[in-house]
Amino acid sequence: HFRTVGMVNGSETAFLIDTGASTVAVSDHFAAKASLNGGAPTVFNTANGPRPGRMVEGVTVSVGPLQVNNTRVGVGISSSPDQEALLGQSFLTHFNVTMTSEKLVLSPHR
């Protein structure tokens, strides 16, 4: 597993990088902290089964100098105290992703 620190809607969070997740997703607790309000109701198909949530559009997500504006963020993932967010494809597809057994590197498309 790869982890990094980043920002969602201007609030810092610890991401678990999940190349299998279709969107960036955050816990309800983090969403309240980051003022991620509203959004369309949805159901997330997680490893632990279906989970109700909501999809918020137009959110800025960043990791270091890499930033995506106006992206989708799912709200309502189950999380443990040490995991508030997943960094999924709604962010990752904007960058080259290079992965080895020891590290994952994101770089701008050239």
Task: Itemize the secondary structure elements and their pairings.
Layout lengths: L1 E7 L2 E7 L6 E3 L1 H6 L6 E7 L2 E15 L2 E10 L9 E3 L1 H4 L2 E5 L4 E5 L2
Parallel strand pairs: 2-7, 3-6
Antiparallel strand pairs: 1-2, 1-5, 3-7, 4-5, 5-6, 8-9
Note down, in words, how this protein is organized.
- This protein has 110 residues and is mostly beta strands.
- Helices cover 9% and strands 56% of the residues.
- The protein has 2 helices and 9 strands, in the order βββαββββαββ.
- The protein has helices spanning 28-33, 89-92, and strands at 2-8, 11-17, 24-26, 40-46, 49-63, 66-75, 85-87, 95-99, 104-108.
- The strands form 2 sheets. It has a 6-stranded mixed barrel with strand order 1-2-7-3-6-5.
- A hairpin with a 4-residue loop joins strand 8 and strand 9 (104-108).
- The N and C termini lie far apart (26 Å).
- The model has no long low-confidence stretch (mean pLDDT 91).
Condensed summary:
This protein is mainly beta and 110 residues long. It has two helices and nine strands.
> Based on DSSP secondary structure assignment, what is the total number of beta strands?
9
Number of helices: 2
Categorize the overall geometry: globular
Work out the radius of gyration: 13 Å
- End-to-end span in angstroms? 26 Å
Reading the helices and strands in chain order gives EEEHEEEEHEE
Helical fraction equals under 10%
- Spatial order of the strands in the main sheet? 1-2-7-3-6-5
Structural class: mainly beta
> Whole-number average pLDDT?
91
Low-pLDDT parts are none
Question: What percent strand?
Answer: over 45%
The major beta sheet can be summarized as: 6 strands, mixed, barrel
